[in-house]
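Sequence of Porin (Thalassobacterium sedimentorum).
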Amino acid sequence: MSNIRGLLTATLQEATLNNGVFPDLHHPGLNYPYWFEADSLESFRESNGLSRDAFYSPSNSDWNAEAYWDYSSGARVGGYLYMGNDNNWGASATVNGAKAVDLPFFAKRMVDETAYQHLWVDLTRELSGGWGAGVNHQESGIPTGSHSGYRDGHVEWVPWEDLSERNLQVGGVKMRF
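Predicted 3D structure, token representation.
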């Protein structure tokens, strides 16, 4: 919860300093909200005094590895989903359980009217029908829930029952939020 709170605080501060626009951290060629452009993420991390560990949940130590942090020369794979300033990954996504289909799902700016208020959430990723290491909080291989950080600055635990039907799907990957 404290990692998401730190990421949320840094994101809101950056947006405040940038005319309300959320930081553009996503990798432009990779369509998942846990893929980041390396230079943008590094700048965000350094300017906000965040450690590398802040981008990975302590409950999912498998993802806090060099292989993900230095995935390629231009990409980092984080341990949380960033739902702000989507850099068009949302255009290739399907959102199930949407509150309002006539609104954008997530915000680029602090003032955007959107279906969801999420900015940072725990990784709860289903790949090819299985959970594997793509879940921050699980018990016996089954997700138990997720921490969610919202645009109004609060962070809360969302139990699995409230996540089970709401998901973002890009290709064969479903991400619960």
